[in-house]
Amino acid sequence: MCEEYVEKPLYLLIADWVMAEKRWVSAKEIAKHFNMDHCKAINTVSYILAEVGEINCETKTIPNQLEGRGCQCQRLVRVTHIDPQLYARLGHSAQEKMVSKSPRMSAVPPSELNREQKWQMMLSKSMRR
Predict the structure, then answer these.
(1) pLDDT (tens digit, 9 = 90+) per residue, 46-85?
(2) Is residue 128 a part of any domain in this protein?
(3) Alpha carbons 36 and 41: distance in angstroms, whole number
(4) How many Cβ atoms sit within 10 Å of the Cβ of residue 12?
(5) In what order do the strands lie in the sheet with 25-26?
(6) Which domain holds residue 86?
(7) Is residue 26 part of a domain?
(8) What is the rounded distance in angstroms from the CA atom of residue 122 to the CA atom of residue 128?
(9) InterPro entries annotated for this entry (predicted)?
């Protein structure tokens, strides 16, 4: 019997990992850990900070030691709390992934989903394949 795991959205996987690290983390570290482009890691962190109210984060900015590049700063993030209601809203338990026996989701989001649900769907790993 083969069961498919419906994975958490990428932003939630990243937030869980950063919170488990219990330290300041850069987008460069996130990109390396999740094997993604640095730009995508920056965009995902920006999404978490701006759009996901259930994830409490702290940020700090440190200057890079690069000469001749103007004011280039590096933003570090630390996740302090993830509201358990976020997992409930997404259909996950707080400690484990949800198991689904249904077929894979289609590549095009259904029209009956609202804007937020479409974003969550597009950010999930299942849509990156």
Answers:
(1) 999 988 889 999 999 887 766 655 667 788 999 999 988 8
(2) no
(3) 7
(4) 22
(5) 25-26, 73-82, 55-63
(6) 4-98
(7) yes
(8) 8
(9) Tscrpt_reg_CaiF/GrlA, WH-like_DNA-bd_sf
